[in-house]
Amino acid sequence: MRKNILFSITTIILLFKAPAGFSQSVVLPDDKIVDNEALVYSTNAYGYYPSIQSFSQPPVITYNNYQYVIYYNKDRRVCLGRRSLSGGAWETLVFTDYLFSTIDCHNVPVLGISTDGKIHLSFDHHVSALKYRVSGSGVANNPGSYTWDAALFGAITDTLPGMTVPQSAVTYPAFIATPSGKLQLVMRLGNSGNGKERLFEYDPSTGNWTDLGFFTSSAGIYTGPVTDGQHRNIYRDGMGYFGGSRLHLLFTWRETGDVQSEHDILYSYSDDEGRTWKNSANVSFATTGTDLIGLIDTAAVVYPLGQKHGLLNQEFMYADKQGRIHAFKKHMLATEADASSWDDAKTKSKAYHHMRATNGTWTTSLLPFNNHRVSFVADTNGILYAVTGNKLDIWAATPASGYTDWALIHRFDSLAKYAEETILIDKERMITSNILSVLVQEKYTASGQPSKIHTIDFTLSAEPSITLDNTTAEITGTWNTSSAISNYYGVNYRVRASGGTGTNYVKWRATIPEAGDYAVYVWLPDGLPSRATNAKYVVYHSGYNTTYYVDQSLPGGRWVLLGTHTMTTNTTGNGVVMLTDEGNNDFVIADAVRFVKQSSGSARKSLPQQIKRPEIAQSLQFWASPGEVHATFYAALPTRGSIRIIDLLGRVLLQQNIQVEKGYNILNVGTAGLPRGFMIAVLSTGPENRTLKFIKY
């Protein structure tokens, strides 16, 4: 008998708003190559990258201070890589007894590790016979004791140890480690539009698997614009424990093989490792093996959505340490009319964050990025990190804002070199080490040519930072809103005709959370020849102001460092960036700014040029590094001065006025926005000048 079929949730649509503050940043990316020649298809059968698809869970896992990755190499062999997280390169074993012959990106390989140290593998499935193999005991528990070789693993089987019935029509297997120390394997049996989910469980104490049974049903009648109404299947957007004791499941229904037949976003959970299931109202409504999750269980629906609304299967769900559920889904709104086609639906769809609060209430908010199948994870404080795009953009949002203060906190690469559909995060590593470890494959250079697979690790820094978009800036004069040029920050940017007198400007005002030195950045969208090459920015800091000139015609999609300044918590004459309309050429643009607090005593990575002229400054060091000119010195008396950057024709490319304080002074001037070539930096303190020649690359 079915229970509680009324909706018990509240759905609220929130528009994205720019962040007023943010408290995390990303430092020290560690990029390692897993394989230089991973398989890439020459024809597009649901994608070109069969080794890694963003929906595959999990091809990367951390266990016992080792990280493991499974993939296909260019010779179509299954490969398993491992590396010690204490240091060292990836080492890979190749299984030469199986040839991966399909051209179908559904057939991703996955792995799991049980507490007895066995490594479990499954691969090459799309409505096909099970392919499973497992290592001997202890291999993952004592990795240093074993030579990494395929001989550690047994033969491929279509049955699980301890069971006698072969499994057929298998699609999307996934291993899930349970909090009680067991390992579960979930898979769909049947076709798209007519399949059921089945759950198996491995007990390390016996070395055998048990069939827990089906937990979803394909039965029922559904009426919609794209349906045969007789049967269906669920698509898992996420299923796992995520470091806790509760098994979470987010899914959608599909009525036929047509993606347009998908409808509704649903959630359920189990507190007994998948035996019984509850909805968001904490009401039991299904039992694995007997009373299955079915179409009639409308109480499991958390966002009602009809067919032909762009709903895409196999996106992402995550449960943070505090118990909130996060789902990233791309679709049209429920209030919009049916799309005329799948292409029409894709055009109209936007990315949304669906969140279940700890009280069971669901909310929905629009995201500032519009990628599909976004990989994301939460740290121990509940801060969400999403990795998007082919430049590996890292976005973040805080629980204090209700996850509406999304900020682009890091772009790993200025080149569009990674395949967006291959981005995956090692969730175990975030849980155990607070390291954002990303598995990704490079784009192919030619159809069918292999490409590199990387693991890229990002260390999260707790140094305060603040990001402000143009949507919250003060606007004086007429600045038009635009999104015509690529690689802008957030949802748009502002543009105005240049050549003005400075009476028209954009101001970003930050509330500085704590006093200290802050690096000040501006976001540069892609440039055009018509853009100002000397856009004038003024930074207000501790009662002083410093002027910078940025070339906005250069390639963008990046943060440009203006300089580093001491900031106080005062709200007057501090924490402000102003862009005026005084530039040359046709237009100046205003997008986002960012303040990042600098760690005290941070080491310089460039060797300084030693100059000692006590008449202007004692212990003067004046040097250049990529993107900056630096000066450190001790002054006996306070005075005013400047740093100018001049090209070999004598043109002043940048000028920063400075207040020289009595005592130790640190000056950093950003040169990232300047053209390449030979430069002369002139440091003036009172009547004295010192010069530095350098090359801007």
* Multimerization state: single chain
Strand content: 35-45%
Helix content bin? under 10%
> If you average the pLDDT, what whole number results?
87
Strand order of the largest sheet: 31-42-36-39-48-45-44-43
Main β-sheet description = 8 strands, antiparallel
Q: Mind telling me the C-alpha Rg?
A: 28 Å
Task: Give a brief description.
The chain is an all-beta fold and 697 residues long.
List its salient traits.
single chain, 697 residues, mainly beta, 8-stranded antiparallel β-sheet, 5-stranded mixed β-sheet, 44% strand
What topology does this entry show?
Blueprint: E1 13-14, E2 25-38, E3 60-63, E4 66-72, E5 78-84, E6 91-95, E7 110-113, E8 119-122, E9 132-134, E10 170-177, E11 183-191, E12 194-203, E13 208-214, E14 233-240, E15 247-254, E16 262-270, E17 276-278, E18 284-287, E19 301-303, E20 316-319, E21 325-331, H1 342-348, E22 350-356, E23 362-366, E24 375-378, E25 384-388, E26 393-397, E27 407-411, E28 424-425, H2 427-433, E29 435-441, E30 451-461, E31 465-468, E32 474-476, E33 480-482, E34 493-497, E35 505-509, E36 516-524, E37 535-541, E38 544-550, E39 558-567, E40 576-580, E41 587-590, E42 593-597, E43 609-610, E44 618-625, E45 628-635, E46 639-647, E47 652-660, E48 663-670, E49 677-685, E50 688-696
Parallel strand pairs: 1-23
Antiparallel strand pairs: 2-30, 3-4, 4-5, 5-6, 7-8, 8-9, 10-11, 11-12, 12-13, 14-15, 15-16, 16-19, 17-18, 20-21, 21-22, 22-23, 24-25, 25-26, 26-27, 28-29, 29-30, 31-42, 32-35, 33-34, 34-41, 35-40, 36-39, 36-42, 37-38, 37-40, 39-48, 43-44, 44-45, 45-48, 46-47, 46-49, 49-50
